Amino acid sequence: MPVAFPSIKPAEREYTPPSHPVTSVQSQNGVTTKRIWGSKAGNAELSLQFRHIHTDKAAEIVQAWLATNSGIDTLILPSTLFSGVDSKLKELMLPSVGALSWTFAERPTISSVGPIWATVNVRLIGEVRMR
Amino acid sequence: MTAEVRWNNTKIAKIKDISLDIARNPLDTTALGDTDESAVYGVRSTSGSGTLLYDPLDPQTVDIMNTILNDDYVASDSLTIVLDTLNNKTITGTVLLTSTQVGVSTGEAISVPVQFKVVGKPTASY
After folding, report:
1. How many CB atoms within 10 Å of residue A38?
2. pTM (two decimals)
3. Is residue B27 part of a domain?
């Protein structure tokens, strides 16, 4: 069952678009041959940093991680994750008709800063999954 | 209105000047899409400096000068700045003495500049 990712605006965001499964071979005469193995592009990446957020919000991210069964179940990404991006790029990053299923690529890391503040780093992956 | 400085609750005989800086460093919370910076309070940091006039007959002055030579690991001395002795307006805290100097110049009193850091939260009555 999809899990809602908490609605928090990130301080840093790095997006890597999906790519098709392609293999490339270069023969000894220098000719490169490429073969595409599928029609759908996958393995997009989204790295987010939530800087100096309240530890309650950090807990919500950890709860989301656990609710996905450690990155097995998919996430519903809120639009706040894409704050500061215009609609054209946002549509490419998070298509309204979902071609990709997002989930955690790895465990979130939480650095405690000060009495009640934390900085959380999250890395998500957008995969092509069987429906 | 008179002011004085106390070391372990006893007045220091001769002190030329003293200053205390209480700061709270902000933690940046600006997020993507924001047009203005935002911040929350970080931890408080309190430190200060002052200049004593050397007086070998004043136990407080001598004790301060000896404190930097002690091999203690934790702060146990208190410093109190009394802003108004009549109405008992004070700022006080447990301090680590971080630096002392001795300055001798011809025709002037021997001065002892000191620097200190307050451990924990200072208490104040303004």
Report:
1. 10
2. 0.80
3. no
Is there a domain that residue B68 lies in? yes
Say which residues have a Cβ less than 8 Å from residue B5's Cβ, sequence separation at least 6. B11, B12, B15, B18, B50, B79, B80, B81, B82
Number of domains in chain A: 1
Q: Do A84 and B32 touch (CB under 8 A)?
A: yes
Whether residue B87 is contained in a domain is answered as: yes
Residue range(s) defining the domain that contains residue A11: 3-127
Q: Give the number of beta-carbon pairs within 8 Å between A and B.
A: 39
| The total number of residues written for chain A in this structure | 131
Q: How far apart are CA A71 and CA A75, in angstroms?
A: 9
Q: Do A117 and B30 count as a contact with CB atoms less than 8 A apart?
A: no
Grouping H, G, I as helix, E, B as strand and the rest as coil, residue A129 is coil
What percent of chain B has pLDDT above 90? 84
Residue A98 has pLDDT above 70, yes or no: no
